[in-house]
Amino acid sequence: MRYQFDQFTIDTSQYQILHNQSPVACEPKVFDVIVYLVEHRERLISRDELFEQVWLGRTVSDTSLSNHIKSARKLLGDSADEQRMIKTVRGRGYQWVMDTALQDVEQGALSISSVSDDLRDPPSDPDHTVTDDNRSFGDASTTTQPIASPSLWQLRLYRLVILGLFIGLSVLWISSPPTAENNRNMQRIAVLPFHKLGSNPKHDYLAIALADQLIGNLDRMTPLSVRATGSIRPYQNTQQSPKEIGEALQVDSLIMGSYQIINDQLQLSLELIDVDSQDLRWRKDFTAPLDRSFELQPAIAKNIARQLHLTPSPSFAHNADSFPASPLAYEYYLRALAFSDTTAEAKLAVAMLDQAKQLLPDYAPIHSELGRRSHFLALFDLAKDIDIEQAQQHYQTALAINPLSFSALNGLASIYTETGRIFEAVSLSHRLLAHNPNNAQAHFTLGYSYRYAGFTQASIEAIQTALQLQPNDRWSHNLAISYIALSAYDEALAALKKGQETPYSLGWMATIYLHQGKKDLALKQLNRAIELQPGSFWKNDSIGFRAYITGETASGLEAAHTLEAANVSDGEALFYWGCLYALLDDPVSSLRMLNKAVDHGYFNAYHFRHERFLESVRQTSAFQQLLKRVETLHEQFKQEYFTNEEQV
How far is residue 191's CA from residue 211's CA, in Å, rounded to a whole number? Predict the structure, then answer.
């Protein structure tokens, strides 16, 4: 179904909002709110109804709903003062009041609801059909034509027909909200590591690398949620059944396959498996010279898209045409992808990518992966051979080559968040979501930015959206951090326990227990974190908080100085190290670190005001002066992205 008004088109089948025929960024829940109001524009919608139908009864604050209404208005060029589209009825709810044309995409039928008599022709949607061997992805029946201006008597007739239709279908609409429909239409898929045929280990790297490349191509299809490479790594050479894997990954379909190299030819055999029924939905073989294996990926993605009735985004065509000119450089790149996310293997990946870059300097994926690996090492490597600026430069180079590099957009947004450029970070996330509103990483990064700026409830909802699209242990851990910033410790603990045990999760679990006064439990988690990663730079964080519990102030301060000397740029990390200094009774160092945290973009006003670890410095004049600075930055962000009447 398409709704057209004021140069906007809402396409519910593609989960997209267009303005002057160009897609605009829209968070899924904002989209759902807009669609629900438009679909029920004949009546006032109460806040309770929106909670029930859009959030499916999940507990959501009034502030959160207000934020979504505000975001919807901003996206559509409306405001709380004008209320041209969304009208607020104080104490009762909201109503869609803009004249709106309705078109059934499948039938081409047009309906008009409350359209003014001088309605002009709305612009028709552009045809973005992508072809493969002259065969269209789309169905000819979905092609739309410009909508002619109806006459006055036609408008009156349309109004009567639509009024009757609304009355007859109102019960059906209420029982089947847009959110539920969106969830049903959204397909979830995982591409498992491919199985190598033969015993020669020379091409083992292709098992992960080929799957990763296919994941990247499928991520540009809609409506589809694709599990990330990190999620599928544990299933390499697994003995689990497709049903067990699919249920664990929470997907509807699996892509499974095998490969072998014969006479320098890459031979791939792929299958599409339905998880519930375990039926084979599709099977096909692909062959290409090994040194031109990159040409297979777009073709495979198109075949899968046909089977699942998916639509390529405009960025897919751009990506599909960007073939690397050097087969050897591409091999280095694929080998780098196969390395895992540990400090040692990340360094090997960087070395491999540097070789690839020398041979192929104009290939965006190489620079984007260099950015990701460098970012990881800048945060977690004890030696600190790579800094955050290098990671940023790699991402910027990738975007200069390909402005639609999803991985580079997400990575750069994360770095901007951690280095005090949150406004630019949010802009990058919105830019990505304009091309793929179902990109889970973009929703996570947006939630990450919101937490740093102090809009923690919005952060929680954005990260929850990311987790709905794609379960991810690291994101569950980050959801816990957002809950900690809101002093919601039970919820934070529940989020941490959903993921696997890591030194990272153990450290945050200890933080929760410390806030709850459970020092024995906190000590247990910290000891376990140090045991699991004894050589890690981040072990000093655990050592410092453990020293506070045990009363070993000197060793705690030594660990804190080690952390500070590393020149970490992450504002949130600096905030917690300021907390550590405060617990260790070093107010001067605490305030120094807290000021650095703000310099690097962490201005969560609520967290500064309510963090229990800062009790020893909160009443000092220096902290109160810093708090004013934090609140000023928070207010600036609020004016840009949230209305005056909304608080977090």
Answer: 6
The predicted pLDDT at position 549 comes to: 97
| Nearest residue to 336 (alpha-carbon basis) of 385, 374, 299 | 374
573 exposed, middle or buried (CB, 10 Å; 0-12, 13-18, 19+)? buried
pLDDT at 290 over 50: yes
Rounded Cα distance, 271 and 283, in Å: 4
Determine how many CB atoms are found less than 10 A away from the CB of residue 236: 16
Residues of the chain with CATH 3.40.50.10070: 186-316
CA angle (551 as vertex; 548, 556 as ends), nearest 5: 50
**What is the average pLDDT score of the chain?**
82
Encode pLDDT of 86-109 as tens digits.
998 877 889 999 988 876 544 444
Name the pLDDT band for 245 (thresholds 50, 70, 90). very high
Distance, in Å, from the CA atom of 406 to the CA atom of 427, rounded to the nearest integer, reads 14
Each residue's pLDDT tens digit, 312-337:
876 665 554 466 778 889 899 999 99
Mean pLDDT value of segment 460-471: 92
Averaged pLDDT, 82-88: 90
324-403 topology per CATH: 1.25.40
Please report, for residues 103, 321, 421, 463, the alpha-carbon distance to residue 146 in angstroms, rounded to integers and kept in the order given.
11, 31, 42, 39
Q: At what angle do helices 503-515 and 539-550 cross, to 10 degrees?
A: 30
What is the torsional sign of CA 149, 152, 154, 158? Answer: positive
Q: What is the mean pLDDT of residues 555-562?
A: 95
Angle between helices 422-435 and 621-641 (to 10 degrees): 30
3-state secondary structure of 308: helix
Answer whether 568's CB lies under 8 Å from 574's CB.
yes
- Under DSSP, is residue 505 helix (H, G, I), strand (E, B) or coil? helix
Q: Report the distance separating Cα 19 and Cα 3, nearest Å.
A: 12
49: exposed, middle or buried (Cβ count in 10 Å: 0-12, 13-18, 19+): middle
Alpha-carbon dihedral 195, 200, 204, 206, rounded to 10 degrees: -70
Q: Which helix (H) or strand (E) holds 19?
A: strand 16-19
CA-to-CA distance for 100 and 97, rounded, in angstroms?
A: 9
Q: What is the CATH number of domain 186-316?
A: 3.40.50.10070
Q: Where in the chain is the domain with CATH 1.25.40?
A: 324-403
**634: closest CA among 485, 466, 477, 481?**
485
Contacts of 567 (CB under 8 A, 6+ apart): 384, 387
DSSP type of residue 292: G
The first and second tokens of residue 237, run together, are: 């050479």
Smallest Cα–Cα separation from 308: which of 135, 126, 137? 137
Amino acid in position 177? P
* Residue 553: per-residue pLDDT: 96
The predicted structure's pLDDT at residue 287: 93
Instruction: Name the phi and psi angles at 100, rounded to 5.
Output: -140, 130
Where in the chain is CATH 1.10.10.10?
2-183
State yes or no: pLDDT of 617 exceeds 80.
Answer: yes
* Answer CATH for 2-183 from 3.40.190.10, 3.40.50.720, 2.40.128.260, 1.10.10.10: 1.10.10.10
- DSSP character string of 528-571: HHHHH-TT-TTHHHHHHHHHHHHT-HHHHHHHHHHHHHTT---H
- For 81-107, b/e burial (b = at least 16 CB within 10 A) is eebebbbeeeeebbbbebbbbbbebee
Distance CA 92, CA 526 (A): 50
CB 623 within 8 A of CB 501: no
